[in-house]
């Protein structure tokens, strides 16, 4: 796909993971997790905004984008275990995780079984609103959000949807609905910023406020006027918050004992 | 630029023009970051803002003379809302008195707040706006930034300096080809705010608001319009605009007039006032308000009515002389309109004088 510097393919946990990269090699890296019906393409704008400061690695989760998945859609735990395997295989444990929508659930689940791999996290539009755990509740919200997203978002979503297919998306969505994300948030102890667009119908303000309050080290940023997918509609703001997390990470790494750093 | 959903930082938002501006932006659907020294006053202003369709607000108590505090203000705004679209430098103080009698410390403090405060604000806001590629920095100067005032040296210097800073920044951005970032100044005339009561005063006379007094909402509207359609400079209040224009043609005359006006109308000839530092070092203890009790709105309405009456009188008078315009030769009643209008105007003036004492 156009816009990226290069693509890397890594075998891990039985999948051939695809990740697109953009930004200066050798610098700090940021790992991006897309949501449902999405792919690495969602991160092009964000990666461009962040490129002067850090390298973006936009991962395709199994079954999405250019990473082939199993026939049956993976549940949240399956996705997060695949992510853990990839992070170990590429030695990216502790990198800043920038996640969008369903990707947030995967990142939170990662903190449950592999906390050592989790670095600072940016949760953009963390699903699923615990007060609306049904397809019936969510469908109108998704449609409303599609209207509010900029028109350039449509081809990106279409690509993501076609690569993963309707069946997989529906199945994954069911898994997402049944994922008790609010009970796991307390385990995400790294510095976390929750970001929400003020015109996002999918993750309403009270829910996102609750998420930020449940996190041990959480903060809420609300970008006025933006819809659900901020990495596409407000990449500059997202990149700015990510940079702040990068500095916080480098502070915590330098504060750690040197021998601890070498064995990571 | 669109005002709805923009992120606006206002300094000096606890009272007067700043508070009116914050309210006006909130009403238009912007997210407002309120900064000033008084936290309680800010909280109250924020509550007023939130009445408008649940506008988002953030209160950051800040002393603009502290560069680190101003940086932290920008940081807090970005942390909460992700960006800064508009920065309004507005916080200002004044010290009034004969040149030799105003303490040097006070003059320095006025410059610190009015000039350096704006410098810190611009330094905090512009890098963020440059990175975004868009943004409007509004510096509130004054008509005093064009026409100087006696016994008000520090304030006059600071307001001239602000216009210089604004213009210089504009040139810099232009040369560097930064097209989306605008730097503008707003020049209000006398505005009905608590400013005059809170001024440091060594003149021995009570500080009054020099007429004509305009309501602060008018400045707020001008600032919002500045964001919608950025321009170099705008004057708020027709009298102010007139003075600014006249000062370009006859600077000496305007300077003299302003001097005399200040002595007669800005400082009371009846009420004495003890020497005091006003709100220079400590903010006033109340919880802040938009108007300062100078009846800006009422006075504007009276002025408008009188102008309308005078205009009607003029038209009627002209009509009586020239049948083509109106009235006609046969219209006997029209003959009385002009004298009646002039009479009404005179009566209104007397009444106004009596009331203002």
TrEMBL record, chain A:
AB hydrolase-1 domain: residues covered: 30-240
GO molecular function, one term: hydrolase activity
Keyword Hydrolase: yes
Keywords: Hydrolase
SUPFAM superfamilies: alpha/beta-Hydrolases (SSF53474)
Keyword Hydrolase on entry: yes
Annotated coiled-coil segments of the chain: none
PANTHER family assigned to the protein according to its UniProt record, in alphabetical order: ALPHA/BETA-HYDROLASES SUPERFAMILY PROTEIN, LIPASE-RELATED
Name of the protein described by the UniProt record: Alpha/beta fold hydrolase
High-level lineage: Bacteria, Bacillati, Actinomycetota, Actinomycetes, Kitasatosporales
Automatic annotation (TrEMBL), chain B:
Organism of this sequence: Streptomyces calidiresistens
Name this polypeptide is given: SDR family oxidoreductase
InterPro entries: KR_dom (IPR057326), NAD(P)-bd_dom_sf (IPR036291), Sc_DH/Rdtase_CS (IPR020904), SDR_fam (IPR002347)
Every Ketoreductase domain range: 6-181
Any one Pfam family match given in the protein's UniProt record, by short name: adh_short
Region named Disordered: 271-301
Organism phylogeny: Bacteria, Bacillati, Actinomycetota, Actinomycetes, Kitasatosporales
Family statement drawn from the similarity comment of this UniProt entry: Belongs to the short-chain dehydrogenases/reductases (SDR) family.
GO molecular function: oxidoreductase activity
Transmembrane residue ranges: none
């Amino acid at each position: 796909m156009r816009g990226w510097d290069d693509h890397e393919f890594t075998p891990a946990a039985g999948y051939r993971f695809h990740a697109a990269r953009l930004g200066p090699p050798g610098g700090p890296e940021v790992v991006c997790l897309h949501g449902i019906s999405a792919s690495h393409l969602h991160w092009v704008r964000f990666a461009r905004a962040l490129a002067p400061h850090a390298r973006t690695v936009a991962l395709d989760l199994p079954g999405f984008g250019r990473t082939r998945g199993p026939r049956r859609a993976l549940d949240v735990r399956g996705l997060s275990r695949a992510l853990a395997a990839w992070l170990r295989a590429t030695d990216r444990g502790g990198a800043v995780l920038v996640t969008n929508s369903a990707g947030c659930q995967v990142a939170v689940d990662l903190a449950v079984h592999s906390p050592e791999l989790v670095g600072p996290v940016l949760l953009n539009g963390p699903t699923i609103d615990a007060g609306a755990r049904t397809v019936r509740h969510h469908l109108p919200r998704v449609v409303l959000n599609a209207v509010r997203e900029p028109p350039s978002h449509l081809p990106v979503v279409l690509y993501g949807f076609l690569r993963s297919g309707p069946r997989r998306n529906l199945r994954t969505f069911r898994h997402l609905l049944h994922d008790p994300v609010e009970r796991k948030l307390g385990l995400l102890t790294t510095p976390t910023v929750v970001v929400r667009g003020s015109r996002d119908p999918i993750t309403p303000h009270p829910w996102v406020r609750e998420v930020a309050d449940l996190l041990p080290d959480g903060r809420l940023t609300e970008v006025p006027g933006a819809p659900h997918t901020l990495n596409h509609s407000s990449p500059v703001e997202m990149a700015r918050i990510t940079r702040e997390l990068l500095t916080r990470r480098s502070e915590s790494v330098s504060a750690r004992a040197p021998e601890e750093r070498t064995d990571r | 630029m669109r005002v709805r959903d923009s992120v606006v930082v206002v300094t000096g938002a606890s009272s007067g023009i700043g508070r009116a501006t914050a309210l006006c932006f909130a009403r238009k659907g912007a997210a407002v970051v309120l900064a000033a020294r008084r936290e309680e006053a800010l909280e109250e202003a924020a509550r007023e803002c939130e009445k408008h369709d649940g506008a988002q607000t953030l209160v950051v108590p800040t002393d603009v003379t502290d560069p680190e505090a101003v940086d932290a203000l920008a940081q807090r705004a970005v942390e909460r809302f992700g960006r800064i679209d508009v920065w309004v430098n507005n916080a200002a103080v004044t010290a009034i008195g004969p040149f030799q009698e105003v303490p040097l410390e006070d003059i320095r403090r006025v410059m610190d707040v009015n000039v350096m405060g704006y410098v810190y604000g611009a330094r905090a806001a512009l890098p963020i706006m440059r990175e975004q590629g868009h943004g409007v920095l509004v510096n509130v100067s004054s008509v005093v930034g064009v026409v100087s005032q006696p016994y008000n040296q520090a304030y006059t210097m600071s307001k001239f300096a602000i216009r210089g800073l604004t213009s210089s920044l504009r040139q810099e951005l232009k040369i560097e080809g930064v097209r989306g970032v605008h730097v503008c100044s707003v020049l209000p005339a006398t505005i009905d705010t608590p400013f005059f009561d809170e001024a440091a005063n060594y003149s021995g006379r009570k500080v009054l608001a020099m007429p004509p007094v305009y309501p602060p909402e008018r400045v707020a509207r001008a600032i919002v319009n500045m964001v919608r359609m950025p321009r170099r400079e705008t004057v708020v209040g027709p009298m102010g605009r007139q003075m600014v224009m006249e000062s370009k043609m006859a600077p000496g005359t305007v300077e003299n007039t302003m001097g005399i006006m200040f002595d007669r109308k800005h400082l009371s000839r009846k009420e004495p006032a003890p020497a005091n530092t006003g709100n220079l070092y400590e903010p006033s203890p109340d919880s802040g308000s938009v108007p300062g009790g100078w009846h800006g709105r009422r006075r504007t309405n009276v002025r408008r009515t009188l102008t309308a009456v005078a205009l009607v009188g003029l038209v009627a008078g002209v009509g009586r002389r020239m049948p083509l315009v109106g009235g006609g030769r046969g219209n006997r009643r029209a003959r009385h309109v002009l004298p009646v209008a002039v009479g009404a105007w005179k009566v209104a003036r007397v009444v106004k004088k009596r009331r203002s004492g």
